[in-house]
Amino acid sequence: LLKQKANASNESLSTCQTDTKKKHPLKVGNSQEVPAVNGNRNVVKAKPTNKMDNGSAKDNPPLAKPKSKRVGTDKSLNGTRSNGKGCQEKKKNGNILKEKGEIKHKRRKAEEHVEQQPKEAEIWFDDVDPKDIEAAIGPEAAKIARRNLGLETGQSKQSVEQVLVKEKASEGLTRAVAMDCEMVGVGPKGEDSIVARVSIVNQFGKCVYDKYVKPTEKVTDYRTAVSGIRPEKINTGEDFKTVQKEVADILNGRILVGHALHNDLKVLFLDHPKKKIRDTQRYKPFRQRVKTARPSLKLLCERLLNVQVQTSEHCSIQDAQAAMRLYTLEKKKWEAAVKNKSNNKNCK
């Protein structure tokens, strides 16, 4: 009887377990069935936990939170953290590197610019107007040419009138006078010259004589671009013979100053004692300073007076003033040289 009751009880337990398995099938990896202690028939479903091998779920620390983006960027160039300041340091270093790069770039550009400029040894032109060199080659070449000629480029230039004419000075005749003539062309091609204007200034640059001359021949080239002479000026001018006599009277017994005076005397059909001629084109110290045998009046004025003349149409008054100013600049030395030369000739 006892055996029958035990078998019945086991069959009932087996049936109950079978029904439970059908109602709650186990999922692999999600839960576990743990039999009750002391023969308890109830089935306990274990909750999944993050147990470590040597600790309980309660003791296990929570998962670490992901690092913020700032932490990822707050690193210096060598990979170390900079506590939030690394970004600013990196930006600052970037600006410094950028500035250094710009300085190097500008320095390289400057060196290239210097290399492109003409070398001083390459500018060797003699008796060439620096303005012509500037037009053909460039301003740097003209600057070198002016320096080679000794032209003053750093000084502040005064007006031509201030340099060539002495204010509040005598307007009458002086012991030395300067003369210049403007000419026009005659003949088939206009190559021959006749006088069209005569201007004379005293030692202080004051004009004492200025007249246009009526042409004695048919003018074929007025040379206006250079001479500044126009038909209406000379057609109503003074008679040549009158001008010739008046000029001769002024020059008589005086020192005659001018530039390339042989041309002026030639068109006036006049002569003057050689010992009383002071020609700025033939004065040796001037030629040595500008390094040319036949310096132009324009070049001498730029070199010695730091003024520009003959920039457009020529003016015989201004040219005479320029020649006189060059003479007074070297008057003492010039007259001493003439006197010594005369004494040497007398001794011989």
From TrEMBL:
Residues 1-18, 75-85 have a biased composition (Polar residues). One of its GO terms (cellular component) is nucleolus. This is RNA exonuclease 4. Keywords: Exonuclease, Hydrolase, Nuclease, Nucleus. It comes from Pelecanus crispus. The keyword Signal does not apply. GO terms for molecular function: 3'-5' exonuclease activity; nucleic acid binding. Residues 87-102, 109-118 have a biased composition (Basic and acidic residues). It is found in: Nucleus. Residues 175-336 form the Exonuclease domain. Gene3D superfamilies: Ribonuclease H-like superfamily/Ribonuclease H. The keyword Ubl conjugation does not apply. PANTHER family: RNA EXONUCLEASE 4, RNA EXONUCLEASE REXO1 / RECO3 FAMILY MEMBER-RELATED. GO terms for biological process: DNA catabolic process; rRNA processing. Its main location: nucleus. Residues 1-118 are annotated as: Disordered. Pfam families: RNase_T. Belongs to the REXO4 family.
